[in-house]
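Incident log, structure service

09:12 report received: a user says their structure output differs between two submissions of the same chain.
09:20 pulled the input from the user's history:
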Amino acid sequence: MEPEIYIEGNADLGEGPIWDNKKCALYWVDILGHRIHVNDQSGDKSFNVGGEVSSLSPSKNGYIIATVNLSFYRIDVEKGHYSKMLTLNDEPTTNRFNDGKCDILGRYWAGTMDRGERSPVASLYVLDSGRIRRELHGLTISNGLGWSPDNKLMFLIDTPTRKVWKFSFDLERGHISDRNVAADFNDLPGVPDGMTVDSEGFIWVAHWGGWMVSRWDPYNGKLLEKVRLPVKNVSSLTFGGNNLKTIFITTAKHGLSQEEIAKQPLAGSVFKLDTDIKGLPVNLCQQ
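09:34 re-ran on a clean worker, output below:
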C-alpha cells in the first residue's frame, strides 16, 4: 500500500479526520489554526471557529459537534455558524480538549491534555444526554480512541506512555474498566497519536514524529503492518470513501524547523491510502 496526496495543504496541526458517509464528506481540523475543513462533492471549504478545535463528530440532527478549547460547540457547517454548548468547569486552565469520538449510542467521548505535555492532570470525559461526566483521570495527553466492532472494548492512547490501552467497555452504562495494553510502541519511531479501528477489529495508529502509520492486533499486541509517509508528523487517520476502504491521514507542520519544512513540502497535507480492508462507519452524536 502506498499513500497518495489527497489534499495538498499547510495545516499547522492537522487532526481529527472524520468521514460522514451520509454526506460523502471528509471533515478535519487544524487545531492551532482554529479551523474546521470540509471536503465534499462541492469542493473544499474551511472556517474559523475562534479557538483550538481539536475533534468533531456529525450529529443525528445534522449539526457538527466539536471540542473547542475546554468546551463543546454546536456548528452549522453550511452557514458557518457556531455556538457554545457546555464547558468543563473543573479542568485546569493549562489544559485543553484533544481527541474525541462518539460511541455507537451517540455519547461523545473526549479527552483533555496538559499543554506542557508533562503532567498527568488531564482526563477523559463523556458528553451524554446534555451532561458532561469525567470517566478517567491521570492522563497527560489523552489522544486517539475507538471501539471494537462488537463494542466490548474501548481503545485509548495516552501519548507519553507510548501505548494504546484497551478497556472493557460497558455499552449500556457507558463506562470503562480493566485497563490493559493493546499496543506497545517500544522502540518504534515516534509516539502514538490518533487512531482508528477497521472492520476486522484491528487498530491503525498514527506515529507523531515517526513518518508512518501502523496496524496492530489489539488482542495479542502484535504489529501487523507499517506504512511510511513522506512527512514526519503524522497525526490521525480515519476510514472513508464510498466503500469505507480508503484511509484518510492528517499531518502537521507543527514542531518542524524551517529546514525540515523545506525538506517536507507536503507537511500539513491530507493523504489517502487505498486498502482491501473495510473500516467502520462513523458513529453519530446524539446531541
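09:41 both user submissions now match this output. Likely a transient worker issue. Closing.
09:42 reviewer note: The chain has one domain: 4-274. The first helix runs from residue 258 to 263.
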